[in-house]
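Researcher: I'd like a structural prediction for the single chain below. Treat it as a standalone chain; there are no partners to consider.
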Amino acid sequence: MNSPGSSVPRIDYTVVRRYFQAAGSTAATASYMAHEQNLPESSIRYRMRTEVAMIADWLDAVPRAGRVLDLGCGAGTWTKIFAARYDRVVGLEQSSSMLAAARTLLAPFPNAEIVEGDVRKNLPEGRFDLIFLGGLCMYLNDVDAVALLRSLKGRLVGGASIVLRETTVPQRELTSRGDYQAVYRSVSLYQDLFREAGFSTSEVLRNYGYTSMEVAVELVERRRKTLRFLPAQSPFLGALTWYSLRAITPLSFWLLPRVFSRLQINWPRLQNHFFRLRSPRSS
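Model: Treating it as a single chain, here is the predicted structure.
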């Protein structure tokens, strides 16, 4: 395993950009990884409602007149949420497919601006009351994640915070290679990166909205492996999986993940966490 802030690259940025560029008309669902398992768009809406409710206190702490930066905004799902809550929102994205989807989604919001750029070198000018990274650091090598977080400290107004939503693993890290590349770090490894970037503490929340979708994803993958006579790509079967899980929600999306976590059973395989980093000047 590489140490925090390691200069050893595990992510090929050209491959990452190619993956999201190829999303095309599925950009909105690709942002939330629902397209490859044929999950319905209602799965994204359910996940988003759950996620927003989880960090409602963090969002309520941002003034209505605040300025928000959404880095790696994808198809604009979170940017739209911010645009409905705050006076000024800027979304930064480098994939043209995602940019087009975000600009279409945010067209009714004159207070939102979607700009093209690489987060490593094209950060918007000015200071912000909230900076949001919705699954961005998982596509960055350690050294670039640390460099980005360090640079964001100077973009925060006094008392502001950075909120990250990153896919994680329970221990150490896991690197996805091939056509889809990402680094899944543990919570402790993320906290090591935060400390290296100059943030001494962070608040952490397990994202059970993500867990709900990941339960469905893993069941689809299991069906594809074990029931090979069924079509691998099937919107009907994807929807059937999702709505069956929704029908037993207290068990499927609430009880089982918490029981497995207590028993240290790693299922679903991937987790997701929210992190809140406070402006050093406010500490």
